[in-house]
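General statements about sequence and structure are easier to judge against a single worked case. When preparing material for the folding task, we compiled for one chain both its residues and its backbone structure tokens. The amino acid sequence and the backbone structure tokens for this protein are reproduced below:
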Amino acid sequence: MSEYILEAENLNFSYMDGTVALKNLSLKFEKGKKFGVVGNNGAGKSTLFLHFNGVHRPEKGKIIYKGASVNYNSKSLKELRKNVGIVFQDPDSQLFSASVYQDVSFGPVNMGWPEEKIRTKVEQALKRTGTWDFKDKPTHFLSHGQKKRVAIAGILAMEPEVIFLDEPTAGLDPYYCAEMMQLLDDFNQTGATLILSSHDLNEIYAWADYIFVMNKGEIIAEGLPEEIFRNAQVLRKANLRKPWVLDVFDELVKNKAIKEETPIPRKKEQLMSLFSQLQVLDRLN
């Protein structure tokens, strides 16, 4: 039986200017899984994320954490935010301390951990995100990509059960994009639940266990990545494009180069392996 760590039930939310951001939105996140939330700009992804650690409070509906509705008093919100972390799309909205080390240690210090544990967790987070070498540097001197990694380090240092990441690889070069996705995989292996939004559909397709598609404040589809990204109607409605690995695979099936029951590749390496098998078969024939 599935264990859901976070749920949204009939969320409704509008901004002060009257913009309707979420409309009767419901979804569930299963514990320990990797989720992708996709949709075009203005779909409501960032607004949804900010509901899950109490930054926004729904006008109607509720957030459920470990089976209990979120209570919005200060004690309950503090406990929630210890366990549910958010990495914002713009790192400048998250970094405020004088140095990188101070910024990453802010959360652990406020959790009341012993000094030795704080040092250990901060050092681990800095090294895992490749930010250790500039730990003493002022945050305002960092590049956008460096700031992004420091913001993620600050969340990782607190070891939350759930992390929401809003466009975590935006502004990173290809090397650090790959490093970041591997880092998130590693953290997931410790049992953490990860929810990621991204406009890079190739990245989401290769990484996520399950996909939610948002459009105009609503969930219009959910399912396995290969199911969602093969649904032309959903892609059209949400202004999304099929990931290239899946596109190439479907062309091979369409042209009868491979059988329809061939396992669907999720990553480039899996597709290349499939090409290698086809070349071997051609030589044998």
